[in-house]
Known about the structure:
The complex is a heterodimer of chains A (122) and B (641).
Chain A: E1 2-6, H1 10-22, E2 26-30, H2 33-42, E3 47-51, H3 59-69, E4 74-79, H4 89-96, E5 100-103, H5 108-121
Parallel strand pairs in A: 1-2, 1-3, 3-4, 4-5
Chain B: H1 3-7, H2 10-18, E1 22-26, E2 32-35, H3 37-43, H4 47-50, H5 55-58, H6 66-77, E3 81-87, E4 92-100, E5 106-112, H7 114-127, H8 132-147, E6 151-159, E7 165-172, H9 177-180, H10 192-195, E8 201-203, E9 230-237, E10 243-251, H11 259-297, E11 302-306, E12 312-315, H12 317-323, H13 344-351, E13 360-369, E14 372-385, E15 391-400, H14 402-446, H15 450-480, E16 489-492, H16 493-510, E17 514-518, E18 525-528, H17 530-546, E19 553-561, E20 564-571, H18 591-596, H19 603-613, E21 617-622, E22 629-636
Amino acid sequence: MRVLILDDNLELLESLALVVESAGHQVDTAPSAERALASQRDRPADVLITDIFMPDTDGLEAVAAFRRDWPRLKIIAMSGGGRMAKGNYLDTAKVAGADAVLHKPVEPRKLLGILEAFRGEA
Amino acid sequence: MNRRADALQPHAVDYLEGLLEGFVAYDGDWVMTYMNAAAERLLNRRRDDVLGKTWHEAFPHAVGNPVDAMYQRVMRTRQPERMEYLYPHYGRWLEISASPVRSGGVAVYFRDTSDRETLNRIGRTLASELDLERLLQAVTDAATEVSGAQFGAFFYNRTNEAGESYMLYTLSGVPRDAFAKFPMPRNTAVFAPTFSGEAIVRSDDITRDPRYGRNAPRRGMPEGHLPVKSYLAVPVMARSGEVHGGLFFGHAKAGVFTERAERLVAGIAAQAAIAIDNARLYRSLQESEQRYRAVVESQAELVCRFRLDGTILFANGAYARSVGVTAEAMAGRDFWSFIPQDEHEAVRALLGRLTREAPEVRIENRFGTAEGERWMLWTNRALAFDAAGRVLEAQATGVDITERRRAEEALREADRRKDEFLAMLAHELRNPLAPIRNALHLLRISGAGPVAAEARDVMERQLTQLIRLVDDLLEVSRISRGKIELRRAAVDLAGVVASAVETSRPAIDAARHRLEIRLPPAPLHVEGDFVRLSQVVANLLNNAAKYTDPGGRIALSVQREGAEAEIRVQDNGVGLAPELLPRIFDMFAQADRARAAGGLGIGLALAKMLVDLHGGRIEARSGGVGRGSEFAVRLPVKSTL
C-alpha cells in the first residue's frame, strides 16, 4: 500500500517511515498539512497516518479535509495526549473521520497490525 | 350642731370626728351643716363660726376658684369628683373629694398632700441626677430643708474596685471645713442603728439619750463639734438591702424634729436609695465603657463599632490613624467610604448573615487606608439586637493581611507556573519517545547477535517504563489544572470492570496474581464516564498488583448497597501502615513506595478525584503492614425509572 505520514517532528517522521517501509509499504512523508495535501494530490496514498497535535495546523481539520476529498482513504490519527486523552481528542478524531486512533508513542507492531488489516479489507 | 347633724347616727359622728381627713357637709342650699375636728385644724377655722353659713359666706376667698367650680358641678350633675389643688389661701396642697348626698347636698372630704407633693418634687429632682456626688448633695440639701435642721450630713459607703470600702460625705447648712478635722463617725451605740440599717433614730435631745456618751475616748461629741441637741438619723438602703449610708441632722435647740420631719426624711431616703442605685448603675456602665475604650485603644488591631447601615459609633486610634482621620472625628463616619465600591455587595451580604444565634462572621476585603489599599481580615461580632432579633450594633476587629495575601498570591502563581511547566515537560518528553520506539523496532527487525538483542530488550523495557512515567506526569498536570471533564452516560459496571481488567491484566499476570471477580446477577447502572470509571478500577487493580507479593490474590467485586453501587478491590498484599491511611489519596502520598515500584504515586489520588467528580466516595482499609488492603468505591446508582 501507499502510506502518507504527516508529522511536524522530522525524526519521528523519518523513523516511522522506516518502520512502515520495513513492512513493505511505499511511504511519502510531509511535515505539514499543506505539504501532505499536495503530496496526496500528486501521488494519492491508500493510508494517511497523521498527528493531530501540531503547532501550525489543526490536525483534526486536516483529518476532516482529507476525508472530504478522498472518501476512501484510510486514516490513522495519533495523539500526543497520553492515556487521559483517550476520551477526548482521539474520540473527536474518530468523529472527524479517522478509521483508527493511536496515542503516541505508537507501538510499531500495533501500527503495522492496523496497516495489515487495511490491506486485508482492500 | 344643727338638725341635720343631730340626725346623724351617733357612731357615724364618732367615726367622722376620729378621721385624719377633713370632712364638711353642705345642704342643697349651700348651707354648711357639719364640719369635723380635722377640718377645723386643716382650715384653721372654728366650726361655731362657720356652721349655718353658706359656702360662699364662710369662705369668700374661694368664690370662683377651681374648687368652687367643682362643688357647683357636683351639686348640679350629682356626680362625685375629686381634685388636687395647691390652695393659695392655705399655701398647701389639698386633695378634695366632693360627693352628692341623697338629701340634696354635697359632702366634702379633704386632706393635706403637701408633704407628698414635696416628696414627689424632690423625687423628680433626684431621679434626674445621674452624677453620684451631685445626687448626694441634692439629697442632703433637700432633707435638711424639709426637716428644719440647722445642718445635715450624708455619710455614704463606697466600695472601690479593690473591694475596700470607704466613706464619702456631703454636708448641708455648714461649710465643709466645719467637719473636716473630725474622723468619720464610728460604729457607736448612737450611730449603729443607722449604719446597720436597723432603724431611724429621732431624739429631742440626744445628749440625754442613754446611748449617748458611752464611747471612749471622748464620750460624746468631739471638741469643736457644732452643738447638737435635736438629732435625726435615717438609714439609706438599697432595694437589695445593702445600706448605702445614713442621713444625719442636727439642731442646737431641743425638740426640733417632728414626726412629720421624720416621715419626710424617711421618704427622701427611700427615693435617694433608688436614685443612688440608678446613678451607680450609670456610673458602672460609664466605667465599663471607659475600660472597653482603654482596652480597645491599646490594641494594634483596627477596631470599630458600627451600625449595619455603616455608621461608625466608635473607632479606636489604630483605625483612625489607618484611615487618616482624628479619633474624635470618627464617630458618625460611614465605613463604606473606606471600602472599595466593588467590595460593597459581598461585604454587605456577609454582614447580613449576623444573627443572635451566629453573631460572628469573618470577612476578608480590601480597605482604603491613608497610605493606600490594604487587605484586611475583619472579625465582625454583633453586639446589640432589637426585639425582633435584628442586629443594631456590631464590632469589627481588623488585622492587616496584605503580606499574607501577597505571599498566597505569589504561591498560587508559582504553583500555576509549575503546573504549566509540568504540562510542557510531559509533552516535550513524549516527543523523543516515539522515534526511539520506532528505532528500536527497526533494530529488532534488522536482526543482530544475541548481545545486541539483549541490549535492545533492556532498552525496550526501560522505554516502556519511561512512557508510563511521562503519561503519569501528564495526568498530574491535567489534574492540578482541573482539565478533566466527564462524558456522562448510563454505564453498566460489568462493562467498566471488563475494560479495567483488560487494562490491568498484563500487570496482574506478570506478578502471577490470582484475580477473582464477582459481579451482581443483574446489570448495575451508574451515571458516569465509562473511560474514567474504567480508569478508577484499573488504577485500584494496578495498585493491588503492585503492592502484593508475586503469586498473591486479588478479589474484585461489584454489589448494590441500597442506593449505592459498591466496587471493592481486596488484596492479600503488603497492606497500609495506619499513619499512611488518612492521606493515602493525597497526590504523591505513596511517592516513596511508589518510586520503588516504578511509578509517581498518583494512581489513588487520580482515582479519588475521578470518584469525587462522579459524586461518589472512595475508602481505604487495611489491617496494617503485611495484612493486605481493601479499597471500596461507592457511586450513586442510576435510577432505572
